[in-house]
Signal recognition particle receptor FtsY
Amino acid sequence: MAENPWSLGRALRGMFVKPTIDETTWDDLEAALITADFGPDITERIVEELREKVDRFRTTDPRDLKRMLVETLEEHFAKFDRTLKLTERPAVVLVVGVNGVGKTTTIGKFAKFLQRYGRSVVVGAADTFRAAAVDQLATWAERGGAAIVRPQQEGQDPASVAYQTIEYANRTGTEIVLVDTAGRLHTKGGLMDELSKIRRVIEKQAPISEVLLVLDATTGQNGVMQAQAFLEHAGVTGLVITKLDGSAKGGFVLAVQERTGIPVKLLGQGEGIGDLTGFTPHVFAASLVE
Ligand SMILES: Nc1nc2c(ncn2[C@@H]2O[C@H](COP(=O)(O)OP(=O)(O)OP(=O)(O)O)[C@@H](O)[C@H]2O)c(=O)[nH]1
């Protein structure tokens, strides 16, 4: 398996080639997990669980520890239900998050991802305040093979764009609706009111299947703080972690799940249209440790 930038491989390599597990093994493991942004609590729990397993199986072989580490990480990653619930027709997905985390890019990639499964997609440009943002979304929608419903004028009520997008889906039989929303932080109250209004207006026509919060892995725990208002008020059902390719912080995926109690459903690992994948715990755990 190719080594990912967020892999622990390099940090752990020295540990697994030693002849036997010793105290420095545990120190090295702890340091590697902390560096990968697992956070102190989860790091402590994982090290503790591994010490118990190593004792229980009476092994001193670092290769056993490596296998146990993969298993333990997988168990932790898999604690949450990461299935995307997209069975409604249309299935409406609201995409939320602060500016610059990769929302627009993610919507394009997600459209492409859904298209590969044979789904038709329309994108609603409900971030109506910057014409440039709408154009950028249109470019990504086109790349992703999705239709787009744009605001008819700059600054149009975002809720009305969401409404028109669902109307479009109903009229054309489009299966999935992805609604882009604004991420401005300076008017948090206003932003949350806007989101509630979008939700209310959408729910008059169709239930909302998923609310996906996009988080940038390179901002780490700080990014979660920034997104707190969305977590508290937006009814988030899943997380999308972007920019994992530019980060050594694979542990953030687990830290953020445990901290928010919300499953990671998609991973963004590059700037290309094909760089979005589902989150598969055994693959992710294995890639982390390889
Ligand atoms: N390396 C990398 N870059 C990414 C990824 N996702 C997004 N980006 C980059 O992050 C930058 C911001 O992405 P956008 O999609 O414009 O972010 P946004 O949240 O829509 O930003 P606003 O429209 O300003 O709210 C762009 O330069 C993207 O190419 C990713 O998974 N990996």
Notes: The mean pLDDT is 91. The chain has twelve helices and eight strands. Residues 40-56 form the longest helix (17 residues).
